[in-house]
Amino acid sequence: MIGDYIYFGIFDYAAPDDVKVVDSSGNEVASYEVGALPGDFAVWNSCVNNGDINADGILNVIDIVQIVDAILSDDDYLCAADANSDGVVNILDVIQLVQDILGIESFQGAVNWIQKHFPQIRVNERVKQALLLPESTQILK
């Protein structure tokens, strides 16, 4: 089952074959002509990494607050919170949003704003941690 539907691959070892979708009562709700041997099905949910964590269509301080809360709570990865699209939700995403939403041009200015309004996030420690290079890419002296 995927969501509320059951997907069946119907095949005869030669293309085209079919995928049938039925609801929990057995009613066919969709039918797709596909290539040969359909067998594995997955769900893909797209996400826009724009920082609009509450999906209200507006980037504002509420989004900053919710991303800070997600970081402090060590929540699972939230795609919408990944404002810089690097695959990690961390302080760099908050800095990006502060710069974008509040119009603070400098990195340090955004860090200062976050430190003033969210001292519990320990922004300087998190920035250092986020900017550390993996061991394999560190330059040896």
Give structural notes.
- This protein has 141 residues and is of the alpha+beta class.
- It folds into 2 domains: 1-44, no CATH class; 61-133, no CATH class.
- The chain is 31% helix and 13% strand.
- It has helices at residues 61-72, 91-102, 107-117, 123-131; strands at residues 6-10, 17-22, 28-34.
- Strands 1-2-3 form a 3-stranded antiparallel β-sheet, with no helix packed on it.
- Helix 2 packs across helix 3 (107-117).
- The chain is elongated, with a radius of gyration of 23 Å.
Entry keywords:
single chain, 141 residues, 4 helices, 3 strands, disordered C terminus
What is the gyration radius calculated from CA atoms? Answer: 23 Å
Q: Report helical residue fraction.
A: 25-40%
Shape: elongated
* End-to-end C-alpha gap: 55 Å
Side-by-side strand order of the widest sheet: 1-2-3
Total domain count: 2
Mean pLDDT: 89
Count all strands and give the number.
3
Share of residues in strands: 5-15%
Number of helices: 4
- Main pleated sheet: 3 strands, antiparallel
Low-confidence stretches: 135-141
Structural class: alpha+beta
- Element-by-element helix/strand order: EEEHHHH
How does the SSE layout of this entry go?
Elements: E1 6-10, E2 17-22, E3 28-34, H1 61-72, H2 91-102, H3 107-117, H4 123-131
Antiparallel strand pairs: 1-2, 2-3
Helix pairs in contact: 1-2, 2-3
Short note summarizing the structure:
31% of the residues lie in helices and 13% in strands. It is of the alpha+beta class and 141 residues long.
